[in-house]
Amino acid sequence: MVKRKTDIWLYFEVLPAGSSNQKTINVRCKFCKSVHAKNATRMKSHLQQCTYVPHMIKLKFNILTPKSKGNHSKFPFETSMKKTTSAKLDNDNTDAACTSSTVSTASTSASDNIHVETPVYTKINRIQSFCDRMTHEQNNELNILLARAIYTSSAPHSITENEDWKLFFKKIRPSYTLPSRYMLSNRLLTEEYERVEVQVNDKIKQADNLSLQCDGWSNLRNESVINFIVTTPEPLFVKSVLTKAEKHTAEYITKLMVEVLEEYGPKKFFAIVTDNAKNMRKAVILEEDSDLEADQVDALYVSPSVETLTDQKDLDDSLMCEEGTTTDIT
Question: What is the distance between the alpha carbons of residues 231 and 228, in angstroms, rounded to a whole number?
Fold first, then answer.
């Protein structure tokens, strides 16, 4: 049976004998045109060392060394070619967060001394490079931040149901699931309220001196409300009362003031700021005579219409004739 010639002969051409007495047959390299003796081992060694030989041909004969005889593939170099091609594709798509690592393998045979880089990557990394994934915790964190932005900017809760906004968020983060209008109006709103409430209470608790501001007006639905702000001196909104059918009498306003003072510690308040309405001024006097002990509140009345602080006792004379009268806040 005739022995099959190795593929090395494909890259050499046999030279004709120079004379009839020439015993050695020579071959010429098709890449560098150098002449060598007809010997398969030496011819392979030349291909591995020749700088004109393409890298893929060198890689082919490196795999066909005795150490790789266990590879029974029909084309032993096919695996390496696929790995090298995959490595090139991975490197070209670094923007897609595809990561790969390389290991260097060197042949230690006597005739081979080639340094080959083979890419090694995991299946997980390849999948993640094509998929935008987000955990439940990450999605919930984005929901909280989005809800806070909606509340503080007075944006409508239906913004997350608008098709253009959906497309916008889809382009930014495809895996992000927007909260529904119901979620924004219930769970997320409750959580944000509780967070702000704790933050406000902590700031008031840490302050040594406080002042109370209150004023009343009508909201967009023409409903009467009274708002309370505590300054540390940073203004902190603490309470809003929807009075409904309740008349804004001095006694009623005094009751609301006392509730706020008792909640945050009466001794810490040194001033009460209101508008110049008669019922507000009288409410300050009534607050002094309320159930709070005399030494619990040492506050001064401040009217926006004057530039100086006026002791509450100085208001007695001006309000004596007004006792029993009530005036709604306008």
Answer: 10
Which token pair is 214? Answer: 């209150």
Closest CA to 185 of 150, 142, 222: 150
First to last CA, the chain: 116
Structural domains of the chain ordered from first start:
136-191 (no CATH), 207-322 (3.30.420)
Of 19, 21, 37, 18, give the one whose Cα is nearest residue 29. 37
Rg (Cα) of the chain, in Å, rounded? 44
With tokens 């300050």, the residue in question is 284
What are the pLDDT digits (tens) for 153-184?
999 999 999 999 999 999 999 999 999 999 99
pLDDT tens digits, one per residue of 32-64: 989 888 888 888 888 888 888 888 888 877 644
Which amino acid, residue 249? T
Residues near 123 by beta carbon (within 8 Å), at least 6 away in sequence: none
Residue ranges in 93-186 assigned as alpha helix (H): 123-128, 136-152, 163-172, 181-185
Q: Position of tokens 């406080």?
A: 210
Tokens 């006026």: give the residue.
310
Quote the DSSP letter at residue 38: S
Residue 295 CB-half CA count within 13 A: 0
Q: Which residues pair with 104 in a beta bridge?
A: 117
Distance of CA 176 to the CA centre of its chain: 11
